[in-house]
Amino acid sequence: MMDCKKALVEANGDFEAAVDYLRKKGAKVAASRQDRDSNEGVIIAKATADAKSGIVVEVNCETDFVAKNADFIAFAEKIAEVALANKPASLDDLKSLEVDGKKIADALIEQTGVIGEKIDVSKYETISAEKVVAYIHGNYRLGVLVGLSADAAGADEAGKDVAMQIAAMNPVAIDKDGVDAHTIERELEIAKEQIRAEGKPEEMVEKIAAGKLNKFYKESTLLNQEFVKDSSKNIAQFLDSVSKGLTVTAFKRVQLGA
């Protein structure tokens, strides 16, 4: 209220000039806060009405107090809706789109001036599939998108179960074929060092390391993980039990500050 009053005084009662004053002030505040950490905020995940695509965005602020504010959450929801409607190719492209009649990049500066904290969009992901399920976990602290191979009976509930699995278990890939070469090399080297430290003969190192790598695939790739709701099945078996041949074709997991 005091900022608005000061703006009107500075603008001699001219409302539009006062708005311009506040926007310029917002830019100055934003510039002064660029070196501040904005590790709090919200994650918004959404799927389109036809469930063929989805987006997840991370909108940041500096404090948990602001992150829980209804107006801040509503602002983040608007950005997510723009992303969902337009599906821009990158985060920079998203910021060039408009929300409430202004570019998102400018709206972020304006919000920084209004709130007094650095406000930004730090992450943006999107997927497309035959069936996309969006899930938000932990009071906007984590968002997941799951792409399934078919829009089969039971796919909505199954997709949510898999999204919760992803949120909890943080898989590195869908299956072992999706694990990058650097990760495989790192896991093998760690395994070999552990085996040698245990005093195992050198001729056994490669074989034991291969076994440890298979254990890594089981624990860290989605389709091979034990289903948290039923440990007698892995995720691949669970999905196949829902609908024959149903599987995951893509997923994105965005965690606040990670």
TrEMBL record:
Keyword terms: Cytoplasm, Elongation factor, Protein biosynthesis
InterPro entries xrefs: EF-Ts_dimer_sf, Transl_elong_EFTs/EF1B, Transl_elong_EFTs/EF1B_dimer, Transl_elong_Ts_CS, UBA-like_sf
GO MF annotation terms: translation elongation factor activity
GO CC field: cytoplasm
Major subcellular site: cytoplasm
Domain of life, source organism: Bacteria
Region described as Involved in Mg(2+) ion dislocation from EF-Tu: spans on this chain: 63-66
Every Translation elongation factor EFTs/EF1B dimerisation domain range: 54-257
Localization annotation: Cytoplasm
Role of this protein: Associates with the EF-Tu.GDP complex and induces the exchange of GDP to GTP. It remains bound to the aminoacyl-tRNA.EF-Tu.GTP complex up to the GTP hydrolysis stage on the ribosome.
Sequence similarity: Belongs to the EF-Ts family.
NCBIfam families named in the record: tsf
Protein name: Elongation factor Ts
